[in-house]
Amino acid sequence: MLALCKTLKFSLVLSFFLSFGALGFSQTSIDDIHVASRENAPSLKGVAAADLEGSGIHVIHTDSRLVLVPVSVTDPMERFVTGLNRDNFEVFEGAKPQRIQHFYSEDTPVSLGIILDVSGSMSDKLERVRDAVNQLCEVSNPQDEYFMITFADEPRLAVDFTTNPDELRKELAFIQPKGRTSLLDAIRLGLRQVKKAKYGRRALLIISDGGDNHSRYGEREIKGLAKESDVMMYSIGIFDRYVPTPEELRGPSLLSDISDPTGGRAFTVDNPNVMPSIARHIGMELRTQYVLAYRPPDTPQKSTWRKIRVRLRLPRKLPFLRAHAKTGYYASTDPEPPTSLEAERNTRR
After folding, report:
1. 3-state SS string for 226-267
2. Do 148 and 215 sit in the same domain of this protein?
């Protein structure tokens, strides 16, 4: 225990320099959960080695007999904690504890989609959005790939998959905000686009200053798609203190309802100047996650939502640390997905 305390003390000091201290924003509950895997992982039953080598993760459903759970651990100032091991975690499906069979803590690449509001109300916030994207890319894994969807009256794929952040910066330089806010349609397009990703470890970041007022698709459908996607969804909502419309009043809870169940988180701010710090924080979180792997207790008769929870096992001196993970996953009876990352690449061609 003494050795663990020393290790964590060093990790917390290091994270202070890598992070940015306390953030000036409010956010949703910190008891969330994720699902992913790591580079150089050993060959596992039901999972081809090619799925893990260099890919970050390959999404595995229940019929592949393995559930992968990425977890972030933070202190009260939202600084990330490294140096933990398998014995410091417990994972539950429902009320039943599960045996953690594999544990990873390597930094592996991610496929990240940025879903950006470019409606008319974003005109005075765009400079801070550019800074936020720069900060996100600055702390990301050099092998990460990105795409960007912009939305106003309707969404469009502005930048297809690229490993060059300069392509995002070029697009941002020429954006002219105008029109209304088709947020839900943009999220749906983002979830479709991310299926073509190179890496199995996938995330979306939504940046918007208002609730939806111009989408064809409804909240219930998009929330369902997000929960089924195995994609971590983060959001930064910039909302005025004095809300002029019902849609904007609904905005923070809408983003939270979409983000939280997926293992990502929703950040709500009323000052655009803090967006770059939040984006940097999200980039660091994607690089400092632990991954727990367990086999589910049974195969369902039909697609069902399985609740999962991660709990920390720590010395008494460290009760203030918290685990962030998603709240569950869909156990599916569908046929197994492709067992080779090469199959995913062929789908993209």
Report:
1. HHHCCCEEEEEEECCCCCCCHHHHHHHHHHHHHHHHHCCCEE
2. yes
pTM score, two decimals?
A: 0.77
Q: Take residue 219 and report the two structure tokens written for it.
A: 């909240």
Does the pLDDT of residue 54 top 50, yes or no? no
Pairwise CA distance, residues 146 & 73, whole Å: 25
CA dist 33 and 22 (Å) reads 22
Q: What is the 3-state secondary structure (H, E, C) of 328-348?
A: EEEECCCCCCCCCHHHHHHHH
Tell me the pLDDT band of 8, cut-offs 50, 70 and 90: low
193 and 315 together in one domain: no
Amino acid at 202: R
DSSP string over 142-198: TT-EEEEEEESSSEEEEEEEES-HHHHHHHHHT----S---HHHHHHHHHHHHTT-S
Query: CA 231, CA 187: separation in Å to the nearest integer?
Result: 12
Q: How far apart are CA 291 and CA 89, in angstroms?
A: 10
The 8-class DSSP code of residue 270 comes to S
pLDDT at 342 over 90: no
Range of the domain at 196: 111-286
